[in-house]
Amino acid sequence: MRTARTCLSGVCLVFGCTSTGSLDLDLQLPTVPDLRPTGMTTVSVVATSPDIGSMSNTSVLNGQSFSAGELPVGNGVQIDVLFHDVSNRLVGVGEAPTLVDIKGDQTTTLTIPVRRPFVYASSGSKLYTFDPTLDPRDAKFQGTLSGLTSPQLAVSVGGARLVVASMNQLQIIDTATHMVMGSPIAVPGMVHDAAPVPGSNRIAVGHSAGISIVDLDSMTVANGAGPSVDKITVGPTTDGHLVAYGLVGRVAPPAGPVEPCTGTSSIISVDVDTPTAATPMALPQAISDLAASPDSAMLFVTLPCSGKVSRLDGTTFTDMSTLERAAILTVAGERIWAAGTHASVPSCSNAAGNPTACTPTAMADCSATGTTIDWVTMGGHLIVQSIPVGGGTPISVDVPEPRETMVSSDDPARQHAQVLRTLAMTPVDLVALPGGQYVGLVTTNTYFITALVDQLSGQMILPCLKATTGDWQLMDMASSTVSERVRTQCALTIGTRPPSTVFPNWECEAAPDGQKPTMGEFTPISVGALFGAR
Amino acid sequence: MRHVLVALVALVAVCDLARAEPNPKRKVVVLEYRAGSSALTGVGARVVATLGKQTSLDVIGPDQARATYGEHLEGAIVKCAGEADCIAKIGAKVSAAEVILVGISELGDVILTMQRIDVANRTVSARIADSLPANSPPNDEQIGYYLAKLLPPGDFMRFGIIDIISSQADALVTVGGENRGTTPIQPLKLHAPASYEIRVEKRGFTPFRTKVALPADGEIKVEATLSKPGASSWYNHWYVLALGGAIVAGAAGGTIYFATRPPPSSMVPVGGMYH
């Protein structure tokens, strides 16, 4: 610490300040080599408060001490730390566990745990880790956490702890070791969603019996009984107290390209400090997700049927943006991050096998009858939006449609293939990584093509193929690209094949190196990130 | 899907290592291009100011460029759509050897890009990009960091000239502890900004000593008058010098104190350690 104080004194000499005030940061990194941030060359200290807004100082690291300019004095300031490497890749993140008062006449000392910005994806049976500081081909890019029972989702609380919801209990992971801490905490229902309570070590849990507020320090659970909650978020009200909002009756966007979207949803709200039984407030719209701003009284929702992101005040909806098949959203910093999809364009045929207009009941299934979807002429694709919370022009990124290649295993050369366009994409979960540049997403996708039959002989040449894939991807919003992707699963169903079928056997082509699920295939059901907002 | 190495904050330097170091006093024009963003107001002017402080380049900013090129400068930059060939033509019209094109766009966060375009070759010789949180413009240190990545190191090596004239020939000249020969000597080109201690000595004469602060691109003339011992004036006595020194030091200290005494502190330094 002596070195740091010397640095601070040096800063004072250089900048001409004579007061004794300073902000002295003690950044604690894990000792486990695979978890410890490495290769950092710059450190950014970010101060955020209602009075000063957001202010960031970046300085080049020289040794293990640093001086990072000056920050204004103020009360209730959130201090965050970002480490970047020489290519400006984010390699370490820290968040002060509590708000601090920066004084002009005294030293404020702050201990901050700093971690690699791990991303987590859950399958319901395992929790998978992705280390975005590594190359995707690195053997340690993907991993799993042990000691967890049926993990459903992972939520970061302050960065030092990761809360993993498993069925009707919460388990806590020490992020410095990636090991389970203590005993599980039981909640009175099957967990569907969880959200951290800003500025505290508590977490709000939405489950089949309402909402529970869990204090991770005291391991106590306070329940607000109510209907089954599908999604949950926590934010302040205009008078400053924190409220957990639960979405009841989530309406997912249509799975297929021609299916209708209908339904309505309700919202319940519970005071975080004194949770009590909650009554749902019915809304005239179908809602697929909700997210509250962590530091201002604003609640946002995605409307899958009207294709919008809206702000919700009471029962009044105010449009924030248009987003087709709006599915999921989160709020990080001053922006809303939302994902939807553009529907595919299918080609259909009637019961006689003649081309016809697709109807809302047309199915894409190898055993479907009547008017059916035969193939896709234009694949569906993902849309990710970034919208200022205060309103303004959204930034929309249309991710190019993914395609999957099915290879005939009857061809010894393995070069006889069908390239399938996306029939349907479902954004399952989304997390905004610290810094607001990366967005982690998990999706499930469906690909379909009907059988190809010789009309004269009736011989089947190619069987019907239906593939379901899972994707974990990291969107780089700065360059509008998918910077990392892992195809977590490719499950192929082959339709009925008479023995005379020319090419009866097919399989998914292996994903390229760096996109293979090295810990085994899985269907992702949620995504989270250390210090991330989901 | 290829891994995008330069993901959220890209830093790409495309340097032609084979090329000789460019003239550190070449003319460089800084142009600003905004893709529908009003963020980072005045960042082009700050780049100009930083270049002026840290290099010897002949820098002209967007306003000067507009005066030469015409009021349709912004329109011309927009039409170029970032094409180096097109931007180089604008640079040629304002007689610059290089263009630094500062681009500001917003995609979630504010994206700041800087391209260094060689006017003669019409190519991009270096490029950096950074992604910044909204309402967090880069500080001067960060701008300096970007420019250090963008420009060759030689641009940041600056010089000044010290011209030492002695009243006596064959006096030994030492600058910064390094022997520079005997008088008369040619003006010395030295790294700047820096302070140098100068000694001029000759047997039989009282040595001349002084310390000068040499500004970048500046020229200082030092007249060293060597006198015989015993020919000193009243003001050369030690007690006079000591008293004078004390008065000067006191005055300087007081001036510095009152000049730099802050108001009740509104800013505090930030630092720390990681372990």
What would you say this structure looks like, in words?
The complex is a heterodimer of chains A (534) and B (275). Chain A has 534 residues and is mainly beta. Chain A has a domain at 2-115: Sandwich (Immunoglobulin-like). In chain A, 3% of the residues lie in helices and 52% in strands. Chain A contains one helix and 43 strands. In chain A, strands 1, 2, 3, 5, 6, 7 and 8 form a seven-stranded mixed β-sheet that branches. In chain A, strands 41-40-37-36-35-42 form a six-stranded antiparallel β-sheet, with no helix packed on it. The radius of gyration of chain A is 25 Å and the shape is globular. With 275 residues, chain B is α/β, with parallel strands linked by helices. Chain B has two domains: 27-156, TolB, N-terminal domain (Rossmann fold, 3-Layer(aba) Sandwich); 158-251, Immunoglobulin-like (Sandwich), CATH 2.60.40.1120. Chain B is built from six helices and 13 strands. A five-stranded mixed β-sheet of chain B has the order 2-1-3-4-5, sandwiched between helices. A four-stranded antiparallel β-sheet of chain B has the order 8-7-10-11, with no helix packed on it. In chain B, α1 packs across α5 and α3 (73-80) runs antiparallel to α4. At the A-B interface, α1, β1, β2, β3 and β4 of A face β5, α5 and β13 of B. β4 (65-72) of chain A pairs antiparallel with β13 of chain B.
Briefly summarize what is shown.
Helices cover 3% and strands 52% of the residues of chain A. The two termini of chain A are 36 Å apart. Chain A is an all-beta fold and 534 residues long.
